[in-house]
Amino acid sequence: MNYITTTRQRRISISMVLQSESQLEERYGREGANTILHGGMASRMYFPGMDIDTAERLARTIGDVHFERFDAQGNMHIEREALMTPSALRAMPANQVLYLYANKRPALLPVSPYYEQRDLERRTKTPPFVPCTRAVPRVELVPL
């Protein structure tokens, strides 16, 4: 775990892909997972269809929106509601992700699969690099 939280000091980037935050808890325990997610990762991207525990934690993380409402008598009331509910997070459209970066405001970003992007799809058709497998001729040393 120390590797994950200290790599940023060395300007190394790690991409961690999880199906669920509980995978980290299983591996590193609750405190370790919390350290990784909230202390070691500056950038996080959440796709739709996450498990309910992750959605509930994420809804608390992104917080509430406050707004003013006036009643029939003209009195102002400040109300708040979740920016996104856990059910809204789980049911985001397939072409959106929620992006969190450090202490910045959350952003809903559009995404599209690689096969809908010509350039990326073309790159998947590139054959893999095959290193030269022929033997390199031996060079005889000349005594000096």
What can be said about this structure in brief?
33% of the residues lie in helices and 19% in strands. It is α+β, with helices and mostly antiparallel strands and 144 residues long. The radius of gyration is 24 Å and the shape is elongated.
Structural description of this entry:
33% of the residues lie in helices and 19% in strands. With 144 residues, it is an alpha+beta fold. The protein has a domain of 97 residues. The strands form two sheets. The protein has a three-stranded antiparallel β-sheet with strand order 1-4-5, with no helix packed on it. A two-stranded antiparallel ribbon has the order 2-3. Strand 2 and strand 3 form a beta hairpin.
Per-chain topology:
Blueprint: H1 2-6, H2 22-40, E1 43-46, H3 52-62, E2 64-70, E3 76-82, H4 86-90, E4 96-101, E5 107-110, H5 118-124
Antiparallel strand pairs: 1-4, 2-3, 4-5
Order of helices and strands: HHEHEEHEEH
Mean pLDDT over all positions = 86
Strand line-up of the largest beta sheet: 1-4-5
Give the terminus-to-terminus CA distance: 54 Å
Shape: elongated
Percent helix, as a range, is 25-40%
- List the total number of helices: 5
Structural class: alpha+beta
How is the quaternary structure best described? single chain
Count of DSSP strands: 5
Q: Evaluate the radius of gyration.
A: 24 Å
Annotation keywords:
three-stranded antiparallel beta sheet, two-stranded antiparallel ribbon, alpha+beta, 33% helix, 5 helices, 144 residues
